Amino acid sequence: MAESAAAPVEAGRETRRTRRAPGAPGRREGQTAELGKRAVELSRFYAGKIETVPKVPVRSLRDFALWYTPGVAEVSRTIQADPDQSFELTGRWNTIAIVTDGSRVLGLGDIGPEAALPVMEGKALLFKWIGGVDAVPLPIHTRSPDEIIETVERLAPAFGGINLEDIASPKCFGILEQLQRRLPIPVWHDDQLGTAAATIAGLLNALELTHRSVRECRTVLLGAGAANLTTARLLLALGHDPHRLSLVDHRGILHAERADLDELELHNPWKFRFALQTNGGGRTGDLGDALDDADVLLAASTPNPNTIRAEHLRRMHRDPIVFALANPDPEIWPDDARAAGAAVVATGRSDFPNQVNNSLIFPAIFRGILDARARGIPDEVVIAAARELARHAHDRGLTPTHLLPTMEEIEVFPHVAAAAADAAVAQGLARHRLSHDEYLERARARMGRSARLVRALLRSRLTPAMPRPGSVRHGGSE
């Protein structure tokens, strides 16, 4: 699933020898190498992507009598008497932590917390630039789920929300569930919820285009990791018949008689539950067997264009919907999927139509949740955000190549934020209960201020202009 707001998207190594993807992939691979080199150069020049900037006037040292000691003592006493005042009297209300252990970072795998930091900084930049949300990257040096949970619990008083990021499956499920249960602030895992929400939004519009409904279609999910297990859960919440839903992992179709069922129950109870709950009729076999007469294929698996083959899609129902979301390469190239009969195709890449991009979701949903001062982000809130994202594209006209808004359609973000806030109110989770229009205007104002701040820093040259390629000799930290 793509997370970048930038137009260029990484292209991985060539995986198909007999045929390359459209658009000169050899050139794209060269561009990717150049982008990587340039990213290192700019990271050295700027010494990171984000910094802390004061939001109060400091005219002289005398002002610190208000902002620090002795005046700040009364602020602390006020919060001591009522800890909820920490949301009113500090920046906690608009600040989240981006927590990772570096165990599953983009397509890089288990690279550790230090190497994950630039990715978390990029995420924080998106949160601020799009959502007006102050986000603090927090890579932590442990692989233990219990230690991750304990660390986040201890840090929670500083934050209005928690974004878990790039934590390997299946431990990510248990970490999210435990933190959602224990903390009085919203906790979100973007690899699960952001990806699933964007997928659901695109799927709702694809179903309408092909004259299908969630309740009646037959859906196959290829890949049973963080994104697809959550997508499956949201589909069931939308009324999808569990007997018409099948999941396929590297061992084949999930079903109640699989030989590894005891192992799943012990090590991956989330996948185990789907093995018991889905796949009515007890289908067995591989992807091709699962796809017989299916309407929808949602793939979030191996980044290899040979993962899904044309003969697989020909076993599906007429005019199927195919989402091939692996990055950097989709499980099947879009033109191959269309040639095999797919009516609607989506990928995780911006160089093909219908990019399913969780950057359309996470900055906006946090904007709305923070504005509502919500205590959590249940599935009802996630679905409301997905429906609003789908509606925005629907109102601008659906076509087989226009299922979702693009990142350039910035007007969508305040609407998704307001929809999330409304849903938090409906679920009884909002500490700040406002009208839809009030949430919408707050989101517009706060998102707009952030964009203006970024532009003002650039115009004033407080943010230096990008240096010419190859001209950086010393970093900003030197």
UniProtKB/TrEMBL annotation:
One of its GO terms (molecular function) is oxidoreductase activity, acting on the CH-OH group of donors, NAD or NADP as acceptor. SMART domains: malic, Malic_M. Gene3D superfamilies: Malic enzyme, N-terminal domain, NAD(P)-binding Rossmann-like Domain. Keywords: Oxidoreductase. Residues 1-33 are annotated as: Disordered. The keyword Transmembrane does not apply. Residues 47-180 form the Malic enzyme N-terminal domain. Residues 192-425 form the Malic enzyme NAD-binding domain. SUPFAM superfamilies: Aminoacid dehydrogenase-like, N-terminal domain (SSF53223), NAD(P)-binding Rossmann-fold domains (SSF51735). This is Malate oxidoreductase. It comes from mine drainage metagenome.
